[in-house]
Amino acid sequence: MKQENIEETSNQAIRPFSIKRYIEDHNSLITILVTIVGVLSPTGYIAGVIYHQVYLNTFGIDSGAFPIALQEAYFYAYIVSVEYISKGISHLISFKALYITLSLLSIYIALAYFSAKAARWKLATDEEETKLRQCVDKLFYYLKPSNNDFILACTAIYEYFAWIFITRPI
Q: Which of 105, 112, 52, 48 is nearest to 77 (CA)?
């Protein structure tokens, strides 16, 4: 049987690349991409025109005095998008945003920890063995850092960032 499979695969000819066959095979992907481009094109044009008008209005010049071509509108839209993306990245990378994010993450971890402690205490005080108790015990066993490398790594990363923010004030 293995011999037949090898012969069947060796007899198949490798077909050269064809755009028509590619479009037929990836029809839904191409439809999605065309839709996205169709929506983003007018959005980019409008963003470019607005940027041009605002730029001229800051100097008190009527925007009708300097009409722009289609290519210029798209160029201005590119400038605006690069500017906003770079500002967004700089805000995400800033220490203040990182400090706030880590603080919220710390609060969430503390809330989850104390909830787990309360659940474990409740399960320990119950007399009867239930299926829920077995599932929760398995979950707690899995979340123990010595049994799970991912949790151990998250703990190490959290402690590293906590040490950074304690030793280096913002």
A: 48
pLDDT at residue number 1? 47
The amino acid sitting at 78 is Y
Give this prediction's pTM.
0.40
Q: Are the CB atoms for 151 and 145 separated by under 8 Å?
A: yes
Give residue-wise pLDDT tens across range 133-145: 777 778 777 777 7
Q: What percent of the chain has pLDDT over 90?
A: 3
**Number of alpha carbons in the 13 Å side-chain half-sphere of residue 114:** 5
Give the chain's count of helices (H) and strands (E).
7, 0
User: How high is the pLDDT of residue 59?
Assistant: 92
Q: Alpha-carbon distance 46 to 40, whole Å?
A: 10
Indicate whether 19 pLDDT > 70.
yes
Tokens of 149: 């490398």
Q: Given the structure tokens 């025109």, which residue do they identify? A: 49
**Distance, CA of 158 to CA of 170 (rounded, Å):** 18
Residue 14, Cβ density class (10 Å: 0-12 exposed, 13-18 middle, ≥19 buried): exposed
Residue 112: both structure tokens together: 């989850």
Number of neighbours of residue 158 by Cβ within 10 angstroms: 14
